[in-house]
Amino acid sequence: MSLINPLDQAGQRRVFLTAEWRHLVMMNFEVSPDLLSHRVPLGTELDFWQGRTFVSLVGFRFLNTKLLGWPIPFHQNFSEVNLRFYVRRQAGNEWRRGVVFIKEIVPLHAVTMVARRVYNENYVTLPMRHRIERPASSNEGLGTFSYSWKWRSDWAELKANIKNAPLPLVAESEEQFITEHYWGYTTQRDGGTIEYNVEHPSWRVWPLVSSRFECDVASLYGPEFADVLSRPPTSSFVADGSEIVVRSGSRLETGRIP
User: Fold this and answer.
1) Residue 176 CB coordination number (10 Å)
2) Is 254 inside any structural domain?
3) Is residue 231 within 8 Å of residue 29, measured between CB atoms?
4) b/e string for 186-217 if b means 16 or more Cβ within 10 A?
5) Alpha-carbon distances of 243 from 18, 67, 111, rounded to whole Å
6) What are the tens digits of pLDDT across the range 68-125?
7) CB 19 within 8 A of CB 65
8) Which domain holds residue 243?
């Protein structure tokens, strides 16, 4: 499958995938830039918020998924948990702020296969389960969102308890920084970089009551993340999510290998 597709009639790259991303549990950890520097795709640089660098654990629901406009039977609704960090790239006068995925977990082998083949993303397939309990009303009540995956013989979990109604993002806040990166960057097998655009409106976030992450981090994500992800997160919140569009990727000229 080609990684570089023609432009659509509006001059944008063609739509590769549409879906809804809902109930995003986002747990964020401040890290040293040195931990991530060797993972930064060629042609990009680390993106900082107030001089700080973050990795995020994100669990969410993929709903109503369509690939190239077609719903795939038994592969439309599923969960994903990913570990990611943030980069940016200057394109003309524009700074494109994007995400790099360290590992992405899904319960479906076909999703893993497509993501690895098309974008060289580090997907793995594991048994997963989820729990979605929204607050009983918009003005009061508690809710719980959790994502679990079976790793070796134990179940890992990413969980958040929230209250009341989701609120609009505050401009220049940490929540806005974490949620509003609209590009994805992936390092290819030859060292080059693929860039793709992710489109969605601004999300709202729920006030958080508590959060929890339990996992054998060293064996799943690598020993370099064991200390970071065992600490309390810098911040945690739940975003309501929205419909999203992922456009086909293109190879960065600066990422070409002679």
Assistant:
1) 16
2) no
3) yes
4) bbbeeebbbbbbbebeebbbbebeebebebeb
5) 8, 14, 19
6) 887 887 688 999 999 999 999 999 999 999 999 999 999 999 899 988 888 888 999 9
7) yes
8) 15-247
Report yes or no on 151 lying in a domain.
yes
Tens digits of residue pLDDT in 209-256:
999 999 999 999 999 999 999 999 999 999 999 999 999 999 998 644
User: Is there a domain that residue 6 lies in?
Assistant: no
- What is the pLDDT at residue 254? 64
Evaluated on CA atoms 35, 257, 88, 112, the torsion sign reads negative
Structure tokens at 223: 């020993």
Domain presence at residue 203: yes
Counting the structural domains of the chain, the total is 1
Q: What amino acid is encoded at 79 in this protein?
A: S
Both tokens of 157, joined, read: 């979990």
Domain of 87, CATH number, reads: 2.40.400.10
Per-residue tokens: 11: 């001059």
